[in-house]
Amino acid sequence: MDGDCGIIRQMIIITDGRSNIGINPVEAAAKAKASGITVSAIGIIDGEGRDEKDVMEVEAISKAGGGLSDYCYPRNLSMTLQAMTQKTVNHTLECIVSKQLKTIIGQDMTNIEPKSRMKVVEFIENYGERVDLLYAIVLDTSKSMTNKLELAKSCIIDLMEALSHRRGVSKVALISYPGENSQSAGIACEFTSEISVLKEGLKLLKAGGGTPTGPAILSAMELMLEDEAPAQAHYV
């Protein structure tokens, strides 16, 4: 990593079911990873007897996207989303540092002695607060999310408020799927640091339709690659 600043591009999928329209989301996540975007996913588990296999797809998505995965009940979504955000930033930085260590000293983080490893972990945690963050939230708004959508909206606002306290610049975009007028996905909010702008985008979201997770990932990837990096930032 060079310079005092950096920028990390992250995408997180929030869904309660498996994709059933368009490109395989695992393939889409791999495309995003290849473009420098880390893809993680959270599967929402119903407390009403739903088959948990409906959200097992999130593991394959996050594995292909180089990110992390988790499951939670609706009541725990806010806490899970915020924890996942911090973990994914640190995870991405850890991968970068480990790769550089391998190049410099021939060892990655898993092989260096414990005292040195702790110093590296401490550096990553501190740097994670300063790095600039482009963060695309890809939200499932299919029919099955009808009773969970308002809660999901509230959790996303909670996340935006938490991100506002970071030292680095945090810009969040919101992509919903399916989109309006039979589109696979829609941009509810382009990248912004303003909570008020995000709230306006969230107000427009309604649940209905199928679950085109793969196309939504590709839409989020395109939006993220179009967005310009903050001034004087360096990609890591």
* Apparent shape: globular
Q: Which blocks of ≥5 consecutive residues have pLDDT under 50?
A: 1-5, 229-236
Structural class: alpha/beta
CATH topology type: Rossmann fold
The N- and C-terminal alpha carbons lie at a distance of: 5 Å
How many helices? The count is: 7
CATH superfamily annotation: von Willebrand factor, type A domain
Strand order of the largest sheet: 3-2-1-4-5-6
Largest sheet: 6 strands, mixed
Global Rg: 18 Å
The helix/strand order is: EHEHEHHEHEEHH
- Report strand %: 15-25%
Helix content estimate: 40-55%
Mean pLDDT: 82
Q: What would you note in describing this structure?
A:
- This protein has 236 residues and is an alpha/beta fold.
- The chain has a single domain, classed as 3-Layer(aba) Sandwich (Rossmann fold), CATH 3.40.50.410.
- It is 43% helix and 20% strand.
- It contains seven helices and six strands; from the N terminus they run βαβαβααβαββαα.
- Strands 3-2-1-4-5-6 form a six-stranded mixed sheet, sandwiched between helices.
- α1 runs parallel beside α7.
- The longest helix is centred in the middle third of the chain and has 29 residues, at 77-105.
- The N and C termini lie close together (5 Å).
